[in-house]
Specification:
- The longest helix has 16 residues.
- Helices cover 43% and strands 19% of the residues.
- It has six helices and seven strands; from the N terminus they run βαβαβαβαβαβαβ.
Amino acid sequence: MPRVAHILNELRPSGAEMMLKLAGPIWAAQGWQQHILSTGQNLGPFARELAAVGFEITHCPEGKTFGWVSAYQRALQQIAPDVVQEHAEGLSLIKTSVPALMGIKVFRTIHNVFEFKGYLRSTRMIERRLAKLLGVKTITISQSVCSNESQRFTNKSTLCWNWFDDSHF
């Protein structure tokens, strides 16, 4: 059975987490084992809801040290995913390059229009290019995010429309 690990920060009822809550049972019915690796300082208030729909959850609080990178790699080794889907902007190069260097297929989903300028724009542009060199595929969730990635970061992405709850909205 294929196994996917979603990398998120603190688990809150925001866009990515709501999409996972809705889609998780559908993916599970198609044979995917679902795992979430939370890198937030706190696991987050939405963890129970995601666990209730079948996600296994691991908490590996993010840090800016080599010790954290090792802990992150060990967490991925324990989860043993076939695919990683990374959802957060912060430390995204580390969060995508570690699994890519472990031989895991990696997708990075960009959920927002990041209007970075100057030095930050330059560093994020370099990070996105390095990730691509490692085979990381970029997914964007709307036309505005896709256009921003292309124009601001010269980062070509695949547009995959954001999930929404059509039974609610």
